[in-house]
Amino acid sequence: MHFHDDALFPEVQEKLVITVAPYGPEWELDDFREDLPLTMEEHIQKAVDCYEAGATVLHIHVRELDGKGSKRLSVFNELLAGLREAVPDMILQVGGSISFAPEGEGAEAKWLSDDTRHMLAELDPAPDQVTIAINTSQMNIMELMTADDIAGTSMMRPELAATYREMTVPAGPEWVEEHLRRLQAKGIQPHFQLSSIPQLETVERLIRRGVYTGPLNLTWVGIGGGFDGPNPYNIMNFIQRVPDGACLTLETLMRSVLPVNTMAIAMGLHARCGNEDTIWGRPGEKITSVQQIQQLVRIAGELGREVATGKEAREIYRIGDTYRDADETLAKLGYAPNRRPGQVGFTQHA
């Protein structure tokens, strides 16, 4: 991405799209019952509250009534149907892991099987987006956690901390290409969750080969443990490699969430918050998903940057758009074109 002399002026920036992840699949209910929904009605009301606070993208997981993360797509279908009625303008984004929470004491924290995750393309009603990981990697969410982060929560249990420490994200090349094919066939936009520049380079290669032909909405996920950490140099190096036509959100965890989101807002990027990313505000003080959204809206207001409505967020994300082929996708995204046979030297900008 390029930053011209006026790039930090809010009048030349896109309106701010706030993603909220208010279903906290890694937490147990007693960790923050005031903010973690259990019943279907609570899940839907949480979305309404977040939308009214200013969030326009809803990152979705869902719980069973026993408090555990649901792995049943029928429950996702029920939630999606309720959300379509309650928050029709909100972008509904299903988390591609479905649920990574362990099913019982001593169980592994793991993403579901390749075939099960492929079934996200069959959700009915269809979500607007499904998040997709690129390249199998470690996802040790405990690496950056401090004693204060886990104080008084289920993650103080050694066996639970150990299983989250060993979690990996399965996203091999064959699975990624098939998953992209299925999502695109169903008109569901993939939202790329990327941990580092090598994963971004893989996405570019998929685009250059015509495996993915559409808008590039992506999130830099700086949670450490196999992903980038919330280091400003990591962030800026990643931003530098993102093409101008992409839509970039920054994500991190715990008390890094607010400063990273503040940087995103100032730079004209987009923000993500919610109890999946943090339950902490000031040291020792919990903060709800709605309060986090309100905080970001206030910061955007101080900077003079407007917050997108649901319909404006859909336009920014280009929900429903597809491109003809690799050449058109490269041009729309601002990547240089593929080299033609026999062409030497620099290629012209798309």
UniProtKB/TrEMBL annotation:
InterPro entries: Aldolase_TIM (IPR013785), BKACE (IPR008567). GO terms for molecular function: 3-keto-5-aminohexanoate cleavage activity; metal ion binding. It comes from the Bacteria. Signal peptide: none annotated. Keywords: Metal-binding, Transferase, Zinc. Its cofactor is Zn(2+). Transmembrane segments: none annotated. This is 3-keto-5-aminohexanoate cleavage enzyme. It comes from Gordonia rhizosphera NBRC 16068.
